[in-house]
């Protein structure tokens, strides 16, 4: 297979890429001619499902069904992240990495982020307004990274609230909501566990945007 001229050296650092199991999975997908772009789209679809499952917890009254939705949402969030990792690994394995692949990687990511985070805002005992604010900040962090790259700055994946951290916070909140007895679920003022998770994402998102902007400004000043 011909090798692409595109060299994807500026990638998000993910330690799990080095694990043999995921390398084997990527090799299996590549050997069966699964395209990296189709993996990106599947990741987006799983992300949309995760958001729907989170929102669905508000509209289900049965406690057992609610717990099942929380657990399924947590699993779907992690499957989304797995797809985000495997699409790049398969692209490298098959020499299909390209700028078009970057588009397939970025746009589905933004859709997944928005649906998952807004879905968390509509989840049981959560606050929709926090979901919308957190989703806007998730988009803003990615936008700032894109602006930095357009101005010659290496991809800024710094946090503290980049995509993996956002999804980790929501996964933990979902698992806790699934496993904790009702009277053990913490409430801070009017904040329940899901809304508190969104508040963490908002605060962390603001810090992340500021840190990335400072890096970009410093780069531009040094280049002037």
Return the CATH class: Mainly Alpha
The SSE string, one letter per element, is HHHHHHEEH
User: Could you say what the CATH topology is called?
Assistant: Four Helix Bundle (Hemerythrin (Met), subunit A)
Largest sheet: 2 strands, antiparallel
Secondary structure tally, helices: 7
CATH superfamily annotation = CDP-alcohol phosphotransferase transmembrane (TM) domain
Q: How big is the Rg? A: 19 Å
How many distinct domains?
1
Strand order of the largest sheet: 1-2
State the separation between the terminal residues, measured CA to CA.
Answer: 43 Å
Q: What is the mean predicted local confidence, pLDDT?
A: 90
User: How would the global form be characterised?
Assistant: globular
Approximately how much helix is present in the residues?
over 70%
Poorly predicted runs: none
- CATH architectural designation: Up-down Bundle
What can you tell me about this protein's structure?
The protein is mostly helical. It is globular. The protein has a single domain, classed as CDP-alcohol phosphotransferase transmembrane (TM) domain (Four Helix Bundle (Hemerythrin (Met), subunit A), Up-down Bundle), CATH 1.20.120. The model has no long low-confidence stretch (mean pLDDT about 90). The protein has a two-stranded antiparallel sheet with strand order 1-2. It has helices spanning about 20-30, 35-55, 65-95, 100-120, 130-150, 165-180, 195-224, and strands at about 185-190, 190.
Write a concise keyword list for the protein shown above.
224 residues, mainly alpha, Four Helix Bundle (Hemerythrin (Met), subunit A), two-stranded antiparallel sheet, 7 helices
